[in-house]
Design a protein that fits this description.
Blueprint lengths: L6 H14 L1 H12 L4 H9 L1 H18 L12
């Protein structure tokens, strides 16, 4: 479905997925949190609400800025 969308619709799709799909958000958070050191995790625990917002904003912007990487390569016959 994603590949059939126009570039503007793809951006909307990404924003909707990151902002509203709770399972997807939790997966993204888990991926990021899993990369933290013990000390970073202790800081994260104290500020999790603010950091979760920042993480999701960064992920959304990164996906939107990298949208051209999601293009399907042409099929060679």
């Amino acid at each position: 479905m994603f590949f059939g969308l126009t570039s503007n619709k793809r951006i909307d799709y990404i924003e909707n997925a990151v902002n509203r799909d709770q399972k997807f958000r939790n997966s993204l958070k888990g991926i990021i949190i899993g990369q933290l050191t013990v000390n970073e995790y202790l800081i994260y625990i104290k500020n999790s609400s603010a950091l979760n917002k920042r993480m999701m904003n960064l992920v959304r912007e990164r996906l939107i800025n990298s949208i051209q990487l999601f293009e399907r390569p042409p099929v060679e016959l």
